[in-house]
Amino acid sequence: MVYPIVAIGDAVLRKKCKVIEPNYPHIDTLINDMFATMYEASGVGLAAPQIGLDIRLFVVDTAPFADDEDLSEDEQKILFNLKKVFINPEVIEESGEYWDFNEGCLSIPNIREDVSRRARVTIKYQDINFQEYIETYDGLAARVIQHEYDHIEGILFTDKLSSLKKRLLRKRIQLISSGKVKTDYKMRFPQ
Ligand code: NI
């Protein structure tokens, strides 16, 4: 099933999400539905609060980023193969230089802005069998994971912009929250 994507302005996007217990009902169905919802909206990542659930879960599939010819073959390969679910993730460390990347978000359609983040992230998470892993990601892979991780902490990429940029975007964001926005995927609006 494809869920409508929750738009900015909804309180669920501002929650610090809860840990998922291994007996959480039908988590495999939920994960399949999250991938389906993400693909329907042509996203590379989707976090549970974006479908209205305040739980620590996000999915990524960075394959659409892989055919960027400016990337090394190694990085292309990593991006092509990074289809993954992160359950109960916890960022252990961020390191490396800050760099800008033009980010967007399915919950904030038609707005893209440069966001500065560190180049590398080390993250602890569980897979669908609640087996634990610790992994380190760089570059675009790290970027997508950092963006999705922020979602389960109640943070949106627009929070990271300068106060001037925020002020310039305020009206457009209000329009999105009130449903005055066109998307080719289904959304759910708070107002
Ligand atoms: Ni997002």
Overall radius of gyration: 16 Å
Unreliable residue stretches: none
Named at the architecture level, the CATH assignment is: Alpha-Beta Complex
Q: What's the level 1 CATH class?
A: Alpha Beta
Question: Could you characterize what this model shows?
Answer:
This protein is an alpha+beta fold and 191 residues long. It has one domain (5-186): Peptide Deformylase (Alpha-Beta Complex), CATH 3.90.45.10. Helices cover 27% and strands 28% of the residues. It has four helices and seven strands. The chain has helices spanning 27-40, 73-81, 139-152, 163-177, and strands at 5-6, 45-47, 57-61, 83-103, 113-126, 132-138, 187-188. The strands form two sheets. Strands 2-3-4-5-6 form a five-stranded antiparallel beta sheet, with helices on both faces. It has a two-stranded parallel ribbon with strand order 1-7. It is globular and about 40 Å long. The two termini are 24 Å apart. The chain binds nickel (II) ion. Nickel (II) ion binds next to helix 3.
In short:
This protein has one domain (5-186): Alpha-Beta Complex (Peptide Deformylase). Helix content is 27%, strand content 28%.
